[in-house]
Structures are given as structure tokens and as C-alpha cells.
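Obj.: predict assembly geometry.
Materials: sequence records (below).
Method: joint structure prediction, all chains together.
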Amino acid sequence: MKAILASGLTDFLSDAVDLQVQVDAIGLGAVFALMAVGIGLVFGVLRLVNFAYGQLIMAGAFALAFASDRGWPVVVGIALCFAVVIVLSLVMERAVFRPLRGQSPAVMLIATFAVAFLLQSIALLWFGSLGKTAASLTELNRPFSVGSVEIRKIAIVAIVTAAVCLALLVLLLNRTSIGLHMRAAALDFQTARLLGVRANRVSAVAVLIAGVLASIVAVLLTVQFPTVTPTFALRETITVLAGVVVGGMTRLLPATLGGFTIGYVSGLLGGALPTAQSQYLPSFVFGLVILVLLVRPGGLFTRGVPLQERV
Amino acid sequence: MNRQAALQLGAPAGLIVGAALLGALVSRSTEIYFINALVAVSMVVALYVFVGNSGVLSFGHISFVAVGVWAAGVLSVPEQEKPAFMPYLFGFLSDTTVGNVPSLVIAGLVAAAFALVVGLPLMRLSGLAAGIATFAVLEITNNILRYYEKIGPGLNTFSSVPETTDLAQAAIGALVVVVVAFAYQRSRFGRQLRATREDPAAARAVGISIYRQRLGAFVLSGFLAGLAGGLYVHFLPINVDAVYLDLTFITLAMLVIGGTTSLWGAVVGALAVSGLDSALANAENGLELFGRTLEVPAGTRIIVVSALMALVLVLRPRGLTGGREFSLARIAGLTRRKRAQEVAS
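Observations (raw C-alpha cells):
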């Protein structure tokens, strides 16, 4: 028994350090980090957990599928994807987020549930439960060889895209006045307003950036999972939400790191767990989530003693 | 019990009895909707016992419903039917079959035990961390029930569970849940927990242990949720995915739409949303209106329900009832104010 366990563990470890598994896991972590930024940015400014974020990605993916169905060029498909997601985000902000600003977190979260349901059922009615195929960029899903290991191009593309996006975002937040406004609003919305930060503009810009990131994620995800159904990206969103809270929701950097970590760990466990156990992957991941939350309820990557919550 | 308290229990109980009586008058095919609504009332009130009184959002309560579904389902399938769709069952599970009422009680007890095990560590958390941790419990419960075929049917449907949840039993179940919830919120424990919701620091200062009060409510609402799960599996042949994300969202939405902080709100929310949902489902099958059949395309139901949900939350963020218990004085006050406005204008 002990020998079996030991050999299982060595198998697990040798699979885990396998370069292919590593690159895939980092690629998944990169995509999740982008989603975490999209969720964390809106949370920072509006104190709203946007559960409908996954449905924005789903809408973008359907736009890509729609374009590839019609045989339109890839660039047009991606442009359509961006347009659909950005318009939807701004409508969502204007119709739901803005009127609910300052309400209790539970009410805002349930409202985004409702929006998520709405978008999902519209997709169901429009495209059916079997979904459509977005086949435009499948070429990127093919592997190329480095020495003896095969690495899928999309993993590299995802990592590079995420790095570029995050760098641009850091520049925007630190070097522009709207970025300064957003950081101020994230720290203290009321005081920021008193000092002349325009609330509606800041929240619209935060939602807009989140929308841009959602469309990028839609493009990256459809390459790996070309079948787009109404529940596309739903599981990923749930996992990222957990990761964001584990990392530390109140600041953007810990939230992003949390998103990356949960993606990386899922990728690693998914690649290294033996097949018999891989169906229990969600149990492993969410078991870890509970453990980390119990040890560091304020966030894994937050510095110092977390603010004592009064609740 | 004074008059006001009697009304606070009587109003939700009256609504339930009213819904049951209405359900008894309609055709068999429509009756289903009423049973469904009454089971939803049990689930939402069970959720309210914890969420409403403690103010902590839980996404994990449907895992207690799922445990109730599993316990009542796996134990009440007749022994000779079990090998057909649950071939890998542990011995004691495949050899035991219990009757209708015992299976409901067991469902509640097993769910309560599960809630205790989960709550012991998790009730130390609060805010978003508590929300995500309870959600993680839901994920793990669903994942294990779905794949671990030694304890249940996995992804298969719980077929050949005796369908004992009729209108009467659903109504009695909902009434039991409402009475327990009412007794709890009038008890010193319920009052202490609500005190921690309103002002944690002050509650602590008068010697209330937030952890213990939350844990107590968590276990009690776990019991009620398990009972509701038992009713559910005796009502329809369902599988593990019927008690997962969608049900979590819809029950939370019912609670928030009704008004999170009152029993009256939980019952009103559950009945209002299920009523609307059923009416639209009926319309999808063709609606007789002034002698003409109105066809509503399939799928409109969820669209209308979720759009209305968002609308209610935007217009009335505290829910339909404002999160307050039923009171004649307030209704009288409202009409008086309205009359005064009319006079003034």
C-alpha cells in the first residue's frame, strides 16, 4: 500500500514538473488572470461582484462562432466579438450596475445573477443548447515541438497576450488621469467623488476595460474550446471568482495573482492527476480553496494584517 | 403569542394554505406547478433561516438540499429496483429501504449532520470569504455525488423513488418549515443571531458568540433544506444536476426578491417567482386567450423571469416586502398615507 502510494506520488510529481504540463498550466493561469483583472477592476470601483462576466465572454464567443459560420475573415470575427462584448458591458453598466450603486453586495450579486441568466437564456433561444462552432483560429491549437516536448501554440499566445495586457493596464492605471481616478475610487469612492472624480465616468471606464479583457478571453478560449454553448465560460468564471477571493478581492494585484494561481493549480492538477481521479478535480481545487480561506480569510496575497471586518 | 406575532406566522401560513387550496381546484397538469411552488417555499424558507437571520450570504445551501435528495432518494428506492441503476452501492445502502415519512426525517438529519461538519470550520468566516467557501462546498458535494457511484446513482436520475409528495404533503412540509423558522426567529437564539446581523460589535459586547449563533442557524437551516430535498426527490424523478447551480441562483433570487430579512419575504418571494415562472411555462404550451391560442416561443420564460428579477432589484432593492414581517398596521398606514395624498392633491 505504502509502495503504491509512493510510486503514485512520484508519478504525480514527475508529471507535474513535465514541461508540457507546466506550459499548459501557465497558459490557463494567464487566461484566468485576465478574467480576474476584469472581475477585480469592476469590484474595486463599484464593490460589485460581476457574476455575469462569464456570459459576456460567452456572447463574444458566439460572435466569433457567428462570423466563422458566415465564412467571414478572422479579423472581422474578432472585431465583431469586441463590439458585441463592449456594447453589452456598457448597456449592463448603465441599466443595472449604475442604478444599484451603493446597494448591499448581496443585492448587486443577485442582480448580476439575473443578468447572467438573461444572457444565457437569450443565447439558448437564439443558438440552441448544442451551440455553434468557432473554427476560425483552430490553427493555433496545434502543437509545435521543442526538443522532445510538444507545446501548443495557444498556450504561448495566451501567456504573451496576458503579459502585454497586464503591462498596458499597469501603464493606464499609473500614468493616466483616468487611471488615477480609478485607483482613487477603488480606495474610497465617496472621498474620491468629493474630490471631483466623476463617478459615472470612472465606473463606465472600469466596465469598458473589463469588457475589452472579456473579448480577449473569448478569443483565447474559443481557440481551445471551439464549441460555444450557452454555458460557455461559466465554469471558468466560477473558478476565477473563487481564485479572486482567495487571492484577496479588495486589491487588484492580489486578485490577479489569485486568478492566475487557481488557473495554474487547476492546470497542474488536471495534467498530473491520474485519470481515475481526474473527475474529482473540482473537489481537489475547491477543497484547497476552503483550506486557504480558513487560513487566510483576508486573501492569500494581501500584505500585513487584513482589515478587521466588523461582520 | 400576541396578536402581532400570530399575524406574522398566520400570514405566511395562510399564503401556503391558500396556494394549496387553489392547487386542489385546478386540473392535474396544473397542480404540478403548485406542488413545485410549495417545495420551493420550503427551500427558500430553509435558506432564509440562515441567510436572513445572520446576514451572511450562503451559496452552499443547495448542497444540503442535494444531500437530502440523495439520502431520501437512495433509501426509498425499493430494494429490488436498486441494482438496475445503482449497481455499485455499498451493502448497507442497497439492503435498506425506508418509508415515506422516515425518509424525509432521515434526509433532514443527514443534511443537518453535514451542515454541522461543514459549519464547524466555515462559520468562522464572514463576508465574501464565507460566500465563496460555501460555494466551494456546493461544488465538492455536486462533484462527489456525481461521480462516486458507491453511494448513489451518479449522474443517473433517481427513478422509481415513490412519488409521495402530493399537494397535501408539499403543503404540510412547507408549513412545518415555516413554523420551525418562525419558532426559531422568536427564540432567544434567533434574536441573538439577528442582533449580530444588525451590529456585530454591540452583540459581542453583550456576550453573544457570533460563531455559535451562526453555527446553530446553519445546522437548523441545513436540516430544513434536507427536508425540502427529501420532498423534492419524492415529487419528481431528478438527478444530481437538478440540485446545483440553477437551483442555487433561483432560490437565492426568490429570497432576495421577496426581501431577505423576513420570513414573510421568503414565502412571498418563493411564491411570486414560482407563480410567474409557472404562468409563463403554461403560456409556452399555448395560452387560451379570448378564444384564440397565443403561442409564446419556448425559452421566453427564463428571459422574462430574469429580466423581471433584475427590474425588481433595481426598483426595490430591499425586496417586494421591504424585508419586513407582515403587519396590518403597516398596510393600514400605507392606505391612510395614500388617502392623505389623494386628499392633498
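Conclusions so far: Strands of chain A lie at 132-133, 143-146, 149-152, 227-228.
To do: check interface contacts against the pulldown list.
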